[in-house]
Amino acid sequence: MELYSRLTEDMKSSMKAGDAGRTGTIRLLRGALKNEEIKTGHDLGEDEATKVLVREAKQRRDSIEAYQTAGRSDLVDQEQSELAIISGYLPTAMSEDELEKLVSDVVASMGATDMKQMGAVIGAVMKRAGAAADGGAVSRLVKEKLSA
Questions:
Q1: Which one of 1.10.1510.10, 3.40.190.10, 3.90.550.10, 3.30.43.10 gives the CATH number of domain 2-87?
Q2: How many C-alpha atoms does 127 have within 13 Å on its Cβ side?
Q3: Which of 85, 113, 128, 148 has a CA that sits 20 to 30 A from residue 33's CA?
Q4: CA-CA-CA-CA torsion sign (46, 51, 54, 59)
């Protein structure tokens, strides 16, 4: 898996540079990928590995939100730092306009007209967009489109 090799090389570089924060985050990512390999029982493909990183990024965003609510700015800073590192390994996210166009195209192609079809539309959009789209943003846009 190309991503795992890239993480390994980046970890070596960060260790040589003495960047403990980056090294620790990359170790966490490599561990998450290894755990997923063990769970699935096979080597991960690039898509599967990307999904693991998307999940790790989402965990960081959720933690940031929780820590901000609790007033723990020290932990917010740490999570934001980790999120920035993880984001560097993720594909470039779609812009809001690109995502709106994709949602409109999928709604039109499926002939979706009401909220009962929301799950199917979200699934189709996520399948087309892959890791380049945030699930929360897709859900919000589909809801707006179908309720209009």
A1: 1.10.1510.10
A2: 7
A3: 128
A4: negative
- The fold of 96-147 is Arc Repressor Mutant, subunit A (1.10.10)
Cα dist. 118→42, 107, 113, 134, 139 in Å? 33, 9, 9, 16, 8
Residues 122-148: pLDDT tens digits? 888 888 887 777 778 888 888 888 886
With tokens 């003495």, the residue in question is: 18
Query: Could you give the CA distance from residue 24 to residue 146 in angstroms, rounded to a whole number?
Result: 43
Indicate the domain borders of the chain: 2-87, 96-147
What confidence tens digit (pLDDT) does each residue in 11-41 have? Answer: 999 999 999 999 999 999 999 999 999 999 9
Q: How far apart are CA 58 and CA 141, in angstroms?
A: 18
Domain 96-147 in the same topology as domain 2-87:
no
- What residues have CB less than 8 Å from 52, skipping those under 6 apart? 29, 32, 33, 36, 44
